What we know:
The complex is a heterodimer of chains A (about 525) and B (about 425).
Chain A: H1 3-16, E1 32-49, E2 61-76, E3 79-90, E4 100-110, E5 114-121, E6 134-141, E7 150-157, H2 162-165, E8 175-188, E9 191-203, E10 213-227, E11 230-243, E12 248-263, E13 266-275, E14 290-300, E15 305-315, E16 327-338, E17 348-360, E18 363-378, E19 381-393, E20 400-412, E21 414-416, E22 419-434, E23 439-454, E24 459-472, E25 480-491, H3 494-499, E26 501-515, E27 522-534
Antiparallel strand pairs in A: 1-2, 1-27, 2-3, 3-4, 4-5, 5-6, 6-7, 7-8, 8-9, 9-10, 10-11, 11-12, 12-13, 13-14, 14-15, 15-16, 16-17, 17-18, 18-19, 19-20, 20-22, 21-22, 22-23, 23-24, 24-25, 25-26, 26-27
Chain B: H1 2-16, E1 33-39, E2 42-43, E3 50-54, E4 64-71, E5 77-83, E6 91-92, E7 100-105, E8 112-121, E9 134-139, H2 143-159, H3 163-167, H4 178-191, E10 192-206, E11 211-224, E12 229-244, E13 247-253, H5 264-267, E14 293-299, E15 307-310, E16 317-320, H6 324-328, E17 334-336, E18 340-343, E19 348-352, H7 362-366, E20 377-378, E21 384-389, E22 392-400, E23 408-416
Parallel strand pairs in B: 3-9
Antiparallel strand pairs in B: 1-2, 1-4, 4-7, 5-6, 5-8, 8-9, 10-11, 11-12, 12-13, 14-23, 15-16, 15-17, 17-18, 18-20, 19-21, 21-22, 22-23
Amino acid sequence: xxxxxxxxxxxxxxxxxxxxxxxxxxxxxxxxxxxxxxxxxxxxxxxxxxxxxxxxxxxxxxxxxxxxxxxxxxxxxxxxxxxxxxxxxxxxxxxxxxxxxxxxxxxxxxxxxxxxxxxxxxxxxxxxxxxxxxxxxxxxxxxxxxxxxxxxxxxxxxxxxxxxxxxxxxxxxxxxxxxxxxxxxxxxxxxxxxxxxxxxxxxxxxxxxxxxxxxxxxxxxxxxxxxxxxxxxxxxxxxxxxxxxxxxxxxxxxxxxxxxxxxxxxxxxxxxxxxxxxxxxxxxxxxxxxxxxxxxxxxxxxxxxxxxxxxxxxxxxxxxxxxxxxxxxxxxxxxxxxxxxxxxxxxxxxxxxxxxxxxxxxxxxxxxxxxxxxxxxxxxxxxxxxxxxxxxxxxxxxxxxxxxxxxxxxxxxxxxxxxxxxxxxxxxxxxxxxxxxxxxxxxxxxxxxxxxxxxxxxxxxxxxxxxxxxxxxxxxxxxxxxxxxxxxxxxxxxxxxxxxxxxxxxxxxxxxxxxxxxxxxxxxxxxxxxxxxxx
Amino acid sequence: xxxxxxxxxxxxxxxxxxxxxxxxxxxxxxxxxxxxxxxxxxxxxxxxxxxxxxxxxxxxxxxxxxxxxxxxxxxxxxxxxxxxxxxxxxxxxxxxxxxxxxxxxxxxxxxxxxxxxxxxxxxxxxxxxxxxxxxxxxxxxxxxxxxxxxxxxxxxxxxxxxxxxxxxxxxxxxxxxxxxxxxxxxxxxxxxxxxxxxxxxxxxxxxxxxxxxxxxxxxxxxxxxxxxxxxxxxxxxxxxxxxxxxxxxxxxxxxxxxxxxxxxxxxxxxxxxxxxxxxxxxxxxxxxxxxxxxxxxxxxxxxxxxxxxxxxxxxxxxxxxxxxxxxxxxxxxxxxxxxxxxxxxxxxxxxxxxxxxxxxxxxxxxxxxxxxxxxxxxxxxxxxxxxxxxxxxxxxxxxxxxxxxxxxxxxxxxxxx
Lengths: 535, 417
């Protein structure tokens, strides 16, 4: 336990104390402010034993985790502002590679025309252009009831975390400096269009093989409503990048367009996407080298029955430079039926069939997925049963297998004086027959649960225990069992509720892994206690 | 490009003609109604009856904006009214000539506003007001708590292998495509059991467009049904959620992936900057895949000092002594004995005891501490090894080592970091 934990916890609790719970000073009626905080401190004790304990993902011993968030807002004259700051401290490197880190910091101010944001800035321009958070600042201009366009400018660094900004040796990454500008115009009430220009420049290679991009994206996106219920939306983006390590320069384009018609009894969507192999989006989201067409139709046949059908097709190798092209067809159909049995008011059935066809570039597969789900209430028992059959069929000797999975759960609720009990049972089995190897795998799972609530004492929790058993027919492979038990309890003491909104929690878990090769056996015991405070 | 533009133009042209009623099955667009309705930039016809909004996704002015366009067919718009208290009171809203209107209000946290919009044409005909009913709530929860609640739920659904529940947290606009993710996760569930993923949050950033960026550090244990082995890995990744009806749903994921490991190439839309994780992925058979390759070497014949050999930079393999100097013209980087490797050309190795290759992270392999040029360097199955040579780093895991004499059958998995 280090000083950092104690300090941060003390800070969190101090800030959560009622003396600080104030409506801030109000010098003029126009100026107001609010301040809030939340804090969670937990201690975890893990014990791992057995000759195979190296396979455990738990950290042995006593560790802590402290999470603090402060946030507030207010007005000052014509300006509204809000801010947030958060931190995390831990001595378990599996929780975080840093003992103390700043998780978020942001300030925002607006006078309804100009908006300035600093710190964590997430201005999602469009999917291809900018869909990630930056550490930096942004400015937005928007003036309602005028023809002036909405303008957003952003600048910052695309680091995934704040430690990387000050180049902490543990979390240091290459430096990706980003800037972007977006102009969006409401052309009329039915159509808007946006133009975005985004650049990203990498510097500070950490290893000789790190790729360094100098990339630019120019994107047009739009949304058009030609008639009630019908929406046409899409975007077209052009990328232009230089990559220093591989000394490559490429240009690429990406386009997507979607039509959605939505009015009872139907909802129909048509989607087309084409992302060239050389398209690169340093700050957006894209799957390069993919041409995709997708349709989906949901049709409410009656009040009880809804049909959904869909077809997805996509392929790669758009520039023909690969040795083969892989194409995929994924049709599906499903029916959701409320009250399939008229005498059973809570009954619900869902049936689906999905098909995957993949071929080209040395692969050829045709996989079938059949699934049935039935939910109902029998007396005080709620049931949910799922039966699935999957046939993996390849023509290249990679995988020929059939799998059956079955799961059922039963839940109920009983009140005993002031305590509510929620017992549950889950049973599951999975069977896989590998026809190429002529081997079978069988998995059996069961678990028993007991949820409980005592509203008068603000105590709630649940206890679950169960076992997973894998049986393998292949020689040289291990059968295995995992027994688990987990207890979670949450208590909101009335005394603390008067001061602020607090929860004390206790979690305890036990896992026992055993294998045919006993040298792999190990056990995990874990106990977590913590307090969560917010006001 | 021309072909594409033609296709797009044709689709839009067809969709905006008066006959484009295929999707509403003849439903007349002459009715009095709303052409569109947005609540804080969320299209009302894409939300359910309840819309929950987080204060972090409001502008700093704290206002909820209702925008829409009245549609009256042949006549003209007479009035637009909005109720926020389930018809108990109505407010007249100014509208433009083409029927567009906007109304803003400052919500109180935790309070529910039952919104209805009434459009009346000049002939006195009104729209189906009840069809516009939405319950709008400004959540009293802070976005941090909501993100944690959502991550807990989505990880729990995945850990419990509950596909239906998991898909409830995936948005229809999922960037990698929801149908691809669905099938990939189904394959994950067939390939894995005893899934346990724990996480802590590194960074959260909420945008006013209703999307939330989340960076997490994860610690994952999965049981591979095919091999009967446990695989553990850890790292940092990023997810983007979008808010809909107060529920956060997945919009995009980057490598290293948390879900959809069976089709990582199509599910992930990007890679985390500075990713040093092992990028756990599953191949078509349900086994560990990705950029891990398997190398098999078979050497036979009656020769003294018969060993397998391997060149890391070129991937060439063969048998010592006949192949290295004679065939390839240079000593191999690594000769492989029954219990050791013989390093050459500056090769250094270090041992990761009890760890599989897929569990190795880039940072630990590239950490130069612990590397040694010990000759011979003892190796065995059940461990994995870091290899440093010529400024490059590799991880290897032997699955089969040769006998002390006779035919030399060697098999190992290799991954370049």
